[in-house]
Specification:
The chain is mainly α. Helices cover 62% and strands 2% of the residues. It has 8 helices and 2 strands, in the order ααββαααααα. The chain has helices at residues 2-31, 35-48, 76-95, 100-124, 139-154, 172-177, 189-198, 205-220, and strands at 70-71, 74-75. Strands 1-2 form a two-stranded antiparallel sheet. A hairpin with a 2-residue loop joins strand 1 and strand 2. The relative contact order is 0.14. Bound molecules: zinc ion (3 copies). Residues 26, 30, 41, 45, 152 line the site of one zinc ion (ZN).
């Protein structure tokens, strides 16, 4: 019994740490402080699944990292910081003289959770007819999380930053840090223009801008 509790405690703690680090990294990517690091994520947000675009255009995921170095669908911007974080975790666990078994459980859980949430689940939020939207056990949770992720894509502040709902499947740290949002207000057009200016270094952004504004023009007439 004690061994099971001990195991569960390591798994739970590792998931919480993975959620926190994922949240912080996702926020960092949205600040644009390190342009090369933000590149594919902002392409995901500004070109492939832009604020005025459909969030689920087809049954296939459009990969922002095509043509650049990637592992599966995870771009370099997740791999570099993740390996830095993982190295730190390993060093800390070793300094604390954690047993090899617990180290393995902890690192395995962190890796599996990160992949499951930030790669697999995230990509499926942009795909039509994903099985979870019909699963009786999971659909309420999945649809709720997906709605929040749509808001993450559509809401811009005046300086042109997406600043809500950085969690993917769970929003504990959005709650704690005050970035949670469950309703979407009117679309911020000046904020979108500011984002276009701020992230103009993102590949093929200009083409996207003219497509959106031709559509806006056509819809208005
Ligand atoms: Zn994002
Ligand atoms: Zn997304
Ligand atoms: Zn506009």
């Amino acid at each position: 019994m004690l061994r099971i509790l001990h195991f569960a405690a390591w798994v739970g703690t590792s998931i919480a740490v993975a959620e926190l680090l994922g949240y912080l990294l996702h926020r960092l990517l949205h600040t644009g402080w390190i342009p090369w690091l933000s590149m594919s994520h902002m392409k995901h947000h500004m070109v492939l699944y832009g604020p005025l675009q459909k969030q689920r255009p087809s049954e296939e995921y459009l990969d922002a990292t095509t043509g650049s170095v990637a592992l599966g669908n995870i771009g370099l911007e997740w791999i570099v910081p993740s390996s830095m974080i993982l190295t730190t975790v390993v060093v800390v666990l070793r300094l604390l003289r954690v047993s090899l078994f617990d180290q393995t459980v902890s690192i395995g859980t962190t890796l599996a959770w990160t992949f499951l949430m930030f790669s697999y689940l995230h990509d499926q939020m942009h795909v039509k007819n994903f099985w979870m939207e019909r699963n009786s056990v999971l659909k309420a949770w999945f649809r709720g999380a997906r709605k929040r992720h749509d808001i993450h894509h559509r809401v811009l502040n005046d300086p042109g930053l997406m600043d809500e709902n950085f969690g993917i499947g769970f929003f504990l740290f959005d709650r704690l840090f005050g970035t949670l949002s469950s309703e979407q207000g009117p679309f911020n057009h000046p904020g979108y223009a500011a984002a276009m200016e701020r992230f103009r270094y993102v590949e093929t952004l200009q083409a996207r801008w003219s497509v959106d504004h031709n559509q806006v023009g056509r819809n208005a007439s």
